[in-house]
Amino acid sequence: MAICRRSFIKAGVATGVALSIPSALRSQTAPSAARTARMVKSGDLRAFDPVFSSATITGDHAFAIYDKLFAPDSKFTYQPQMVERWSVSDDKKTYTFELRDGLGWHDGTAVTGADCVASIRRWAHVEPGGQLLMARARDISKIDDKTFRIVLNEPLGLMTELLWRPFMMRETDANRPPTEQVTANIGSGPFKFNEALARPGASFTYDRNDKYVPRKEPPDGYAGGKIVNVDRVIWSNIADQQTAFAALQAGEVDYVESPPADLYPAIEGDPNLALQRLNKSGNLLYLRMNCLQKPFDNRKARQAMLHLVDQEAFMRAAIGNPNYFRPVRSWFGNGTPYTNEENTGWFKKGGNPEKAKELFREAGYVDEKVVILQPTNIAVLDHAAQLLAATLRKIGINAELAPSDWGGLVARRAKKGPVEDGGWSIFITSESDFSHSYPLFNVSMSANGENGWFGWPKNDEYESLRVSWANLETLEERKALALKMQRAQWEDPGSILLGQYFSAIARRKTLTGLIGLVDWIPMWNMQKT
Q1: CA quadruple 518, 72, 456, 48: dihedral, nearest 10
Q2: Among 15, 173, 362, 381, which residue's beta carbon has the most beta carbons within 10 A?
């Protein structure tokens, strides 16, 4: 199949495959093309609010239009971004932050300390690190228009790491409940969202914010000066991978975020294209179970999924080329300081379907429908979902696929009700291996029930260990805690690892300066030559 696809592509452009590109996309070619970057992202942007949704594409959107108080550089040292200066009291309980000059919202008003306070409070309702901050905070308040402070009941040494997480919004937007989306798309970041050119399902447009004042430091990771070198960026939604690749070859787009691995040789063989790995840590592919509904409200059913999964089979289905994947047993990923082998006896090459069947019986499974959300426009997740459904059916589980695009999956996974009412049982997603070195900040690593992330697992033993992470000062202490956390996690899992994979973006060689670190791909610094 891969040979046929490559042969198709080689001949396709010459015989007019590019004609299958939507006419709306072709019509966007304009005299200012040298100052316009066109990108095909992984999936369709449906959720615009980074507090409401943790989807990576929502984060990419937020990085464009919003700004942050702090940001990590390429060495993961947290540097001031919107903050000009900050101080901490001798008892380590009072932090004072002063904003830098030149910060303004896209509507022309100035950024204030009150905006930052409201943004921190709203974010803190939904993210584990924020919940920890609020549990220790006595007061979060503005001092004046450019200054705010956080007063703690007890010291919290991770403050700058915590405060890099929330995006700053206008106070009027941040006062909205976190369960309701902010819809204004007005930030203070280097790009403005062009509402007039928004075409949901087709494309979204971002324009350079002429009034944005970047920091003076050079770009370094997500920190430093956010210099915008293009006038416009257009995100085009092209669900079909072959059409997206044909558009890249034809120069209709400059960037394709997730080309299938079997297209890599064709990309490398084109003198006008380049493959580039932006996420150096690789990604963990995993499935998330709805722990509020049958059958996965029962711990035995969740444990059954640990034994059912054959990681090599899932990686071959999702990725294909074994040069780009490997198994992963540790809850803390393959390449983090906390990777360990504690309580990994369930891992077996080929899986253990008989053990999975036994555990489902012990869970009292009686033919309840298991609905697997299937994003058909993201090949890695689509193929993994299809294999999962087939694997469950082989052991007698009533598995059903619910196909949609990624945007539809993001909307549906927020539903907590039963499948009969439009709910779900399992979805598959991915995140960077590196993100699993931060259990306090990574929402998917929490297990605090209905206050937590989609799937809502509740594991009190694990959660008490996770929260105590903030009290440890040394790497060795955290490594020891990671062993206990991993034991508790695999005793009562809410997520099941499917493997680690490495992917690359495809770009035309005329698009340069892309910043890569972990999950998100910002649009500043890139340029067309």
Answers
A1: -80
A2: 381
